[in-house]
Amino acid sequence: MNNVLITGSGGQLGQCLRAIHRNYPKLKFTFLSKNELDITNEEQLCKLFLKNKFKFCVNTAAYTNVDLAESQKKKAYLVNETGAKLISRYCKKHDVFLIHISTDYVFDGTKGSAYYPDDAPNPINIYGMSKLAGERAIFDVCGDFTIIRTSWLYSEYGQNFQTKILNRTKEKKKIKVVNNIFGTPTYAPILAEYILNKITLKKEWEKIEHFSQKKTMSWYDLANKITRKIKIEPVNDTEFKQRANRPKNTSLA
């Protein structure tokens, strides 16, 4: 039986993996939230990997607050780069296959069409830069791994775009949503199934994979997909004051 470690299990994707894990009886799971495992703490990682014989590690742990990262650069890099480097080191040492979750924000959004895994990254905000630094650390340190770049994750779990829209629906307030920034939204439970199916079926992994639902849309389009119970007003992104620059189109191919 393959023993699978899930880091960051309190986050959106981690919760999705936990929700479906009983559908995979051939896998044994260890779920650890950020409160149970700090991936930047080498002592914790050392004890964990010595105590358990993991076959796979799905690293969903990350610093994901795009705007706050602009003023918390050190913290963003600590989790997204140093954390990725440390977990890579222990995966390599203990012969564990690392499945690391990354982001479309490693791209600048100026290509004009969907990005492929071999397209050159060029992040335009601290969050994207820190995630790219983590990817490069994995290439430098890890043995067997895959990096899955995904985009615009949404689901019923955690705090995300869907839950925000639905909460506003309950308040019955008209809302404004950006209609000039585009991407490929990803329903998080589908990504969770993809990961566990591929582990179970022992399929080959690319070093970098892109996973999304491939349909390019704006945040406004996605909001209308989530609900039509309230009036949604399309607006330009310049209406919102945000600390971090957002790439205009990070659709993934």
What are the SSEs and their pairings?
Blueprint: E1 2-7, H1 12-20, E2 27-32, H2 42-51, E3 56-59, H3 73-93, E4 97-103, H4 126-141, E5 145-150, E6 153-154, H5 161-171, E7 175-178, E8 182-183, E9 186-187, H6 188-200, E10 208-211, E11 217-218, H7 219-226, E12 232-235
Parallel strand pairs: 1-2, 1-3, 3-4, 4-5, 5-10, 6-9, 7-12
Antiparallel strand pairs: 8-11
Helix pairs in contact: 1-6, 2-3, 3-4
Describe this structure in words.
- Helix 1 packs across helix 6 (188-200), helix 2 (42-51) runs parallel beside helix 3 and helix 3 (73-93) runs parallel beside helix 4.
- The chain is α/β, with parallel strands linked by helices and 253 residues long.
- The chain has a 6-stranded parallel beta sheet with strand order 2-1-3-4-5-10, with helices on both faces.
- The protein has 7 helices and 12 strands.
- Helices cover 35% and strands 19% of the residues.
- The protein has a single domain (2-158, 184-211), classed as NAD(P)-binding Rossmann-like Domain (Rossmann fold), CATH 3.40.50.720.
- The radius of gyration is 18 Å and the shape is globular.
- The two termini are 33 Å apart.
Can you summarize this structure?
The chain has 253 residues and is of the alpha/beta class. 35% of the residues lie in helices and 19% in strands. It has helices at 12-20, 42-51, 73-93, 126-141, 161-171, 188-200, 219-226, and strands at 2-7, 27-32, 56-59, 97-103, 145-150, 153-154, 175-178, 182-183, 186-187, 208-211, 217-218, 232-235.
